[in-house]
Structures are given as C-alpha cells and as structure tokens.
Task: inverse folding
C-alpha cells in the first residue's frame, strides 16, 4: 500500500523546508516532490501509479521527521502498574513521537544485556514507536562499578545513564566516559550533588521557606554540570546533560560551548513552562527532580533554548500512580508524565516567539537523532518515520484520555494551541487525528 | 462576627478579625480552667480525634484537656500504635477516620502540608497542631494571646525570634501572626539557620543578636536540636550557647519590661540560661496555660461557636 502525504509544509532542518508531497511505499519514503512556488495542492503529482493510495491531506500542517523523546521512563520491568512498555509507546505515539529512549531505572535495572533485550522484545511485541533503551552507567545504578557496555551495545542499548541517580564518584564518571568512547555511546548525565540536595524536595527559596519544605539549591545541579564538563574536557568523549533546570547550569553550558566543548544538553517542557509557584497548595503533581525553579531560572532556560545552548527538548516522562502522589509532599514520588503534552507545550514556545518551527523540529528530532546517531530525515529511501503537527489546533488537555497508565501531570485542563495530529512509524500510522 | 472557617491550617488563612475573635474567645475560656469544676457542657456529644504522627507532650495534652473541659469526647492516636505502621497511607487513614464521623481532627505530622492534604479529604474540621517546618497556628495564637494579655495589645511591639528559624514552624507562624497584628518581627540566629526568602513572610533579618535583644519588647527563643550538628548547621552546643544563647547578661541589657518566651521543650543552658527560664521576665509557663484556652476557643469556634446560642 502506498501513502501520500500532500500539501503539508515539510520542515526537515538542513534538508527541506517547503510545501512538499511525500510518497511512502513499503514503509519507506519513495518519492519527494516539492510544489512549484505559490501553487498549492497541484504541482506535479507524486505516486500516480494506479495502485491503491492512501492520501493524507496535510494542508496547513507541519510535516516533520519523526519526533524523538530521548528521556522517558517506562516502568517495565518492575512497576507495570505505572506504565508498561506498550502503554508508554502508545502515549509516545499519541504525543507525536516516533522514537523514545527509556531510562534504565527499572526493577531490575537495565544494567545488562538481558534486560535490554527484554525491553526490546516487549517493544517489538507492542509494535508501535521505536524504542532505544538507555542502559546504566554503573551496575545497579549504585555508582560503584561499570556495567558491561560492550554487551549492552550488542543487545541494543543506545546510550548510558544512571538517570535518577547522579554518578557521585568522579573517577568512575571519568572512566565511564572514556570506556563508553570505545562503543560510541553517549553518556547522559543526571547532574546532582546529593550532599547539597540533602533532604531537599523543592527549589530552595521563598516558596520553599513559606511552605516549610526543605530546599534544593541551584548549585546542587550546576556544580555537577561543571564537574562533568571538566571530565568531558579530560576525556573528549560524548556527554549529554539531562534535564537542565537552573540559570547557572545554562551559563556553565554556554561557557563550555563558547570555548568549543561539544557537550549537548536537554531541558523538559515543565522547566520552560512552570516555576516553583506551581507547588503551592502542596501540589505533588508539580514535584519532580530537579525541582521547578524560579522565574529567573525559567527565563534563562528560555534564552538557552532560543540561542541553541540547550539542544534538545525531552520530557523526562515519569509515570507514577496516585498511590505515590496522594501522600505527604515530602514523601511523594518525583516526576510527571510528559509524552502527551510535550508537543503542545513546545509549540507554545513557537507561538510566543521563543523558537521557530525549525528550532522546534531541531530540538525534538534533528538534534536528538544526531546525539544518538540515528539516521532519520525526510529523504528518499529512509524509513517513513513522520510526525504531522497542526500548530493551530485548539484543545484542552484531558489527562483522563491519556494512553499513559498514569495521570500525574500539572497540565490537566490547560487550554492549548497546537498539537501532534499524526504519527507514522515505518509507514504505519499509529495515531491519526488529522 | 461569625466564625466560618472549617479548618485551622495556618496563620496566612486567618484574618485579623478572626484572630481577634479567637483571642477574645480564648480570654473568656481561660476562666473555666480556674474553676473548682473545670468543665462546661459546650461540646457535649462532639468527637475530637487527636492524631499525632510525631511525638508531642505539650500540644497533645493541651488539646486533650481543652476538649475535655468543653465536654467533647477526645481520643488520641499515635502513629506508632495506628495502621500507619502497617503501611496505610495518611489519605486512607483519613478516609477511615472520616467514616466514624468525628467532628474535629487535630493533626500533628512531621511533613509540611499534611493538614492541607487531610482537610481536602475529610468533611470534619481539621486543626493543624504542627506540620513539619510549615506551620503551628495554635502555638502562634497562644503566643499572641499571652503577649496581648501582658501588654494589652500587640500592634507596635517589636518581637525578636532567635534560633533555628529554618526548621521552625513556630517561627514561621509567629512571623505571620505577629506582623499581621501590627507588630514588627526581627529574626536572628546563625546564618546557616536563616532560610532563604524568610523576609517574604514579613520579618527582617539581623545577624546581630545583642542588638536584636536590646531593642525587643518580646524575645522568643527557639529550641536548638543537637542533631543539627550533623548537617553542619552549627559546631557545638557550647559555641551556640555562647554566641546565640539568651544569657542572664543579655537579659540585663534588654528592655526593663521585656517578655521572654519559648515554645518548649526548653534546653536549659543551651539556647536559654537556667536563671532566665525561671527568671522574672519569663512568661514561658503562661504560654502553656494559655495554650489550653486558645485550643478551647478553636475547638469551640470550628464546631459552630457563636452560632450555637448560649454555648458558653
């Protein structure tokens, strides 16, 4: 069967930007035809071969290479009541993602080839979006010994991270960076100084003080980012900084990039959308790690996104059931789900003039693909992993309709403008609201 | 004025009028405790659950006595003897309690925000008897009552709160309560124990203890906990007592009619000298006495109070 996506504005940064028709055959992009300037819906016809063609009219929509969320938590194995690989994949598809990278903090931890294979088998059975597992840097995420990166790579792990836990031991981090070079696997660093965090649960500052909650200073994140940048300069490996939340972190990365350090960094929609004020009333659906920060931090994140210091938008999708959230704030689990709200929240940046549509595609597709070494893009012969976005569709976020098994989002009920309306992986349409 | 609050969760949510009403009611309640028969039938048939997740002597006994003097049926649950030890969540415990139709639940908990959580889950009135580092409104109200009683008013007074402000719900509630009633609050203590942004609650910060003391109408000392040494907040009790303790000499430099308060329990010889606790300026035991009156007033007001004709 053939699929023809026509009349959409195709944005594939560095490759295409214009009204383009895309013909998909056997799951691959088989023809690409640009419309003549000014003529919409006509141009030369693509795929006129007499066989059955499913035509998708993408007029007024944005057609992009499949979006990639390089930072998610699927809870399988171990906590299937929060999320399974299948439900997480469906959430991704409904959010406009064609590929996701689940972090290794499952139970058991993804620190050996068997668990990586287990995850990939489950993903194959789910048969939806592409799953690229991130394996652990250290055995059991305990920061004491290295995992077998060779075996993990062979099993299908794409990157390494102890996400959720920082690698406190600087020597281990140095060796991990060096050793990972042999397998061309990026290290994704969760930067956190646990001594500075102590018993903190929210951003340190006036809000924490008035609510009587222990604070986490910005320095708990930025000092470790500075350490990891120094280790990167020592090892010349491949370092990606996860979930940047503070202005000092943005500055540290900015300074590093200025002197030519090729570190990359991500932030999550909640850090550029919300501030610590969201926790008022002890809202556990706004509790995450790193915590929501001040408005100055949010401003710095926005600026970092605008000028390219922050390369990637990733959700840190962290499903938790109400059992972990309807509790004392101190004891509530960290994290919120993000797969089904990320595109809309990121489009808000476009509507607000912070980034361009091209910038959005870079941060949600092109850059993560580059970091992970994935070969994607709207090019003839490539697998048809495509997302279609309607930048103007208005709707209200309704978490009760989510594919995710969890509902822990602070965005429920928000009025949004713009969303992903079609997700295609390997030519197969997984989600269609066009 | 009618008191319409269902819950007493913190000092922020009480208006000046409400605070005055509570203090006036407490003033009247105080007399009951010095009668030969210390009991009135006001809350007969009401059930008050004292739910204490955290150890407490003063506050729990104070609430218990307050409830009994108003003829309410009160019962205490401690976390250690409840289903909490079997892993039941606070929310589930609350729903189960609710099913037994108590009128008022008094909650003490080591986590901030738990009273808010509980109040959102149950129809009963919730009185916060201290939640983590967040709030201790009944303590602030009894402190306001005690100062008002000794000084005839609160407005214009200067209150110095000295010690571990970071970990103190008493400090937070008193900063809000006293500034709301027109007093000026200065906080002082080791910089490690002054939390970021405390000024937004209305207090000014000083690192000069002697200055804060000699200008104050009221000096409120906070308990210093030895285990804070482990998180490097102060080096030793010896040094703390020397630099930040309320010594006899410091009291001599204070105003001649200064009032010295402490929410208890007191570490004699650490944050406050032996002689000062028992000295002429100390109103520490008046605070305890007034605690019963304030809690009687609150139990009365949240259960309908003035709406019940002839209640007192």
Result:
């Amino acid at each position: 069967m053939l699929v023809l996506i026509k009349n959409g504005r195709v944005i594939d940064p560095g490759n295409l930007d214009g009204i383009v028709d895309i013909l998909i055959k056997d799951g691959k992009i088989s023809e690409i035809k640009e419309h003549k300037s000014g003529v919409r819906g006509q141009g030369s016809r693509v795929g006129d071969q007499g066989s059955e063609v499913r035509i998708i009219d993408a007029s007024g929509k944005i057609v992009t290479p499949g979006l990639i969320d390089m930072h998610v938590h699927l809870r399988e194995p171990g906590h299937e009541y929060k999320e399974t690989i299948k439900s997480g994949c469906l959430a991704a598809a409904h959010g406009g993602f064609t590929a996701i990278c689940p972090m290794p903090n499952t139970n058991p931890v993804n620190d050996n080839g068997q668990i990586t294979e287990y995850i990939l088998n489950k993903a194959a059975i789910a048969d939806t979006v592409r799953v690229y597992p991130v394996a652990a840097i250290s055995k059991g995420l305990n920061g004491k010994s290295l995992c077998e990166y060779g075996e993990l790579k062979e099993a299908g792990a794409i990157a390494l991270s102890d996400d959720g836990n920082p690698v406190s031991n600087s020597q281990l981090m140095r060796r991990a960076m060096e050793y990972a070079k042999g397998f061309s696997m990026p290290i994704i660093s969760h930067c956190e100084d646990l001594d500075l965090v102590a018993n903190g649960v929210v951003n340190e500052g006036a809000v924490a003080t008035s609510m009587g909650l222990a604070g986490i200073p910005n320095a708990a994140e930025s000092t470790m980012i500075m350490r990891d940048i120094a280790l990167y300069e020592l090892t010349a490996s491949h370092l990606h900084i996860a979930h940047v939340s503070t202005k000092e972190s943005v500055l540290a990365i900015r300074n590093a990039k200025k002197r030519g350090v090729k570190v990359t960094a991500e932030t999550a929609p909640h850090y550029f959308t919300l501030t610590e004020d969201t926790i008022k009333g002890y809202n556990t659906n706004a509790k995450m790690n790193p915590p929501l920060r001040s408005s100055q931090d949010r401003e710095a994140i926005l600026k970092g996104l605008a000028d390219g210091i922050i390369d990637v938008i990733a959700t840190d999708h962290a499903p938790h059931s109400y059992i972990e959230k309807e509790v004392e704030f101190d004891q509530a689990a960290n994290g919120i789900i993000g797969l089904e709200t990320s595109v809309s929240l990121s489009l808000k940046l476009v509507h607000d003039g912070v980034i361009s549509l091209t910038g959005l595609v870079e941060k949600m597709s092109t850059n993560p693909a580059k970091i992970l070494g994935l070969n994607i893009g709207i090019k003839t012969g490539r697998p048809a992993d495509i997302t279609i976005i309607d930048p103007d569709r208005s709707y209200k976020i309704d978490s009760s309709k989510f594919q995710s098994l969890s509902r822990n989002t602070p965005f429920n009920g928000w009025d949004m403008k713009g969303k992903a309306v079609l997700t295609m992986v390997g030519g197969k349409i997984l989600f269609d609201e066009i | 004025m009618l008191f319409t609050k269902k819950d007493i969760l913190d000092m922020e949510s009480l208006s000046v009028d409400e605070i005055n009403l509570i203090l006036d009611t407490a003033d009247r309640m105080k007399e009951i405790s010095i009668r030969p028969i210390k009991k009135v039938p006001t809350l007969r048939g009401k059930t008050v659950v004292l739910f204490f997740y955290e150890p407490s002597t003063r506050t729990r006994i104070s609430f218990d006595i307050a409830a009994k003097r108003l003829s309410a049926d009160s019962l205490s649950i401690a976390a250690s003897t409840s289903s909490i030890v079997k892993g039941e969540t606070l929310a589930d415990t609350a729903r189960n309690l609710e099913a037994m139709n108590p009128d008022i639940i008094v909650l003490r908990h080591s986590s901030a925000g738990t009273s808010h959580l509980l109040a959102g889950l149950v129809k009963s009135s919730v009185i916060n008897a201290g939640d983590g580092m967040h709030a201790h409104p009944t303590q602030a109200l009894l402190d306001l009552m005690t100062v008002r009683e000794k000084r005839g008013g609160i407005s214009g007074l200067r209150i110095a709160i000295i010690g571990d402000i970071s970990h103190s719900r008493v400090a937070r509630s008193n900063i809000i309560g006293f500034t709301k009633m027109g007093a000026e609050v200065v906080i002082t203590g080791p910089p490690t124990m002054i939390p970021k942004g405390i000024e937004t609650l209305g207090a000014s910060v000083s690192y000069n203890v002697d200055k804060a003391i000699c200008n104050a109408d009221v000096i409120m000392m906070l308990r210093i906990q030895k285990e804070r040494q482990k998180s490097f907040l102060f080096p030793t009790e010896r040094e703390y007592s020397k630099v930040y303790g309320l010594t006899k000499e410091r009291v001599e430099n204070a105003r001649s009619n200064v009032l010295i308060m402490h929410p208890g329990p007191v570490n004699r010889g650490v944050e406050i000298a032996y002689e000062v606790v028992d000295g002429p300026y100390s109103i520490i035991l008046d605070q305890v006495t007034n605690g019963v009156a304030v809690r009687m007033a609150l139990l009365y007001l949240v259960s309908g109070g003035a709406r019940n004709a002839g209640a007192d």
Remarks:
- The two ends of chain A are 20 Å apart (CA to CA).
- Residues 163 and 320 of chain A are 16 Å apart (CA to CA).
- The mean pLDDT of chain A is 95.
